[in-house]
Write a structure and sequence with these properties.
Length: 580
């Protein structure tokens, strides 16, 4: 930098005009001299499962959102782990005009010892990854699956917990053990009536030993949310595989093809004892989760809210071990009449992890005070049931105080005209010379008016002829099916037929969203329709039988459809500050 400044001084003459070397110039010079690698790349580290048996292989995954400085050096891992193989993958996406990039390094390893082992920081040139830990336990023991572990192929399944509460999360894990080559395999999905089932991420693979025999293991995980209390049975999984058989001796010619045979194996069935809503839960809406966090954020100081200017409140609810369809509305309070409230559409997200589902509901509300003063927003309370502690808890945001102050409004100052000067104005007008019209000027005046009228009529006729009729767009097959579903839903709701309404909603969801269960459809609808769908689900599968009123559901359905049209029109125009 000093050398650059000395050179710069040499280039400048004593009488040079220094006005060109202002702040923007030196800022540009600084950005030119600073290396683009001045900022480190954030590299996250994770494992595909934790804990891990000492006789099993597992994956250490390094993830970055941009390319690091150099290739990684994985040699520090060899102190506690044996590196089996490694791979790299890169993915890019373009969402809402913004591009994102993800780079992953996957290292398959096996632990050399038991205990809590540290995954050390790995250098990627000048960039360094984070540090993590993994728990290595004793050798895993095969469960009683009805199949002896010396078989070439068998399936293990487990469900945790086996005594869940209604609409709470059950983690269902399937492991396929094999020590032979498989050409093709077909495995059915877990089946359970009156339940929502979702697959968690991609399959993971590792190696292990069972009774001294080496096996390759493929692990797949699901989450199950039972919608009915009582005894429910998860049907066995059935695997149909084509097993490659070795060639018979004496026939090892070049033209011999590999022989295969079909084999079918079956897992055990798992029985769930689903418990109803406990009597200790006094909340209005049942919400079971492993963890729940409720928080708020403000766009500016709540004590300096200016009259006529908006301030945004962001409410977010994050729950672990539940679906987003179970999360309640957050902004249900009534504010002061002098405090205008403009809620935005809620943001609903679900994230799949190795431990289950993470659900997020975020609501943004704009507040605009119409006069100065103090305002009070009531407390927000979300009762929920902690499935870990088996107790009811309350997530709460206390009462919030707002103070609005008058804004600075600049008004134009109008200088009055003295009465003496006003009296002089008519005299000055009277003294102005009069304009005399000549006899021929009227002819030209009427000629100009006639020509102007003719030109205007010609333009109107031309524009009228240019207007084209809107083409008649015929409905495609999907639109026809959607209209048929809506007609069926309306008929079912009019007759208060809950079962027929459910079937119509499921068909509508398959056509519109490609969803096959009510909870997944509810997530994609607005808050009111979502609540009515959840209530319909509870009416059909709840413990207590109640009379269902279909008019409310169809009314919410019509309002949801109307909002979709409003949002579509708003998207075609300029986006407002806050959408109602």
């Amino acid at each position: 930098m000093m050398g650059t400044m000395i050179t710069l001084k040499k280039l400048l003459k004593p009488d040079a005009d220094l006005r060109f070397f202002t702040l923007p110039f030196f800022l540009l010079l600084f950005l030119t001299l600073v290396s683009p690698r001045s900022f480190a790349v954030d590299i996250q580290v994770s494992v595909d499962r934790n804990p891990v048996s000492i006789d099993e292989s597992f994956q250490i995954i390094f993830t970055a959102t941009e390319s690091p400085d150099d290739d990684p050096d994985f040699s520090p891992l060899e102190q506690d782990f044996s590196i089996l193989n490694q791979s790299t993958s890169t993915s890019s996406s373009w969402v809402n005009g913004q591009s994102s990039k993800t780079v992953k390094w996957i290292v398959n390893v096996m632990a050399k010892q038991r205990g809590s082992l540290v995954i050390p920081a790995i250098k990627f040139g000048k960039d360094v990854s984070g540090v993590s830990t993994v728990l290595i336990i004793e050798k895993g023991k095969s469960e009683n699956t009805g199949i002896t572990p010396d078989k070439d192929l068998y399936i293990e399944v487990e469900a945790t917990p086996q005594d869940p509460y209604i609409q709470s999360q059950v983690l269902y894990t399937m492991r396929l053990y094999t020590k032979i080559d498989i050409a093709q395999a077909r495995l059915n999905e877990p089946e359970l009536a009156d339940a929502v089932i979702e697959k968690l991420g991609d399959d993971s693979s590792f190696n292990t030993q069972v009774n001294g025999v080496n096996y390759s293991v493929t692990e797949r995980k699901y989450v199950i949310f039972p919608q009915k209390s009582g005894q429910l049975t998860i049907k066995p999984l059935v695997l149909t595989a084509e097993i490659i058989a070795s060639n018979q001796p004496g026939f090892n010619s070049f033209f011999n093809s590999q022989m295969s045979k079909t084999k079918q194996v079956e897992s055990k069935a798992i029985v769930l004892e689903v418990k109803p809503v406990p009597s200790s839960f006094t909340g209005k809406h049942w919400l079971a989760a492993e963890q729940l966090v409720l928080k708020q954020e403000w766009s500016s100081d709540t004590q300096q809210l200016k009259v006529g200017e908006p301030m945004t409140r962001t409410l977010s609810l994050v729950a672990k071990g539940t679906t987003v369809g179970q999360l309640p509305e957050l902004n249900a309070s009534n504010a002061d009449d002098q405090l205008k409230v403009y809620p935005d559409q809620p943001v609903l997200k679900e994230q799949k992890t190795v431990d289950g589902l993470m659900a997020l509901r975020e609501e943004k509300i704009a507040f605009i005070p119409s006069k100065a003063g103090d305002y009070s927003l009531p407390a927000i309370e979300i009762p929920w049931f902690n499935t870990k502690t088996q107790a009811m808890e309350m997530a709460r945001i206390p009462e919030t105080k707002l103070t609005a102050v008058a804004g600075t409004i600049q008004s134009e100052v109008i200088t009055p005209i003295p009465s003496a000067k006003i009296s002089e104005l008519p005299q000055q007008v009277d003294k102005a010379p009069a304009i005399k019209s000549e006899p021929g000027s009227n002819v030209w005046l009427w000629t100009s008016v006639f020509l102007a009228a003719g030109w205007l009529m010609t333009v109107i006729w031309f524009l009228t002829k240019r207007i084209c009729k809107k083409p008649v767009i015929e409905d495609n097959e999907v639109e026809i099916n959607l209209k048929a579903c809506i007609k069926t839903l309306k008929y079912a709701c009019t007759n208060n037929d809950a079962l027929a309404a459910k079937d119509a909603l499921l068909e509508w969801g398959r056509q519109k969203f490609d969803c096959s269960n009510l909870n997944a459809i509810a997530v994609l609808c607005d808050a009111r329709l979502r609540d009515e769908i959840v209530y319909l689900n509870q009416t059909l599968y709840g413990q207590e039988s109640t009379q269902w009123d279909g008019k409310k559901l169809f009314q919410a359905f019509v309002e949801n459809k109307a909002r979709e049209k409003i949002v579509l029109k708003e998207d075609e125009s300029l986006e407002p500050l806050f959408r109602l």
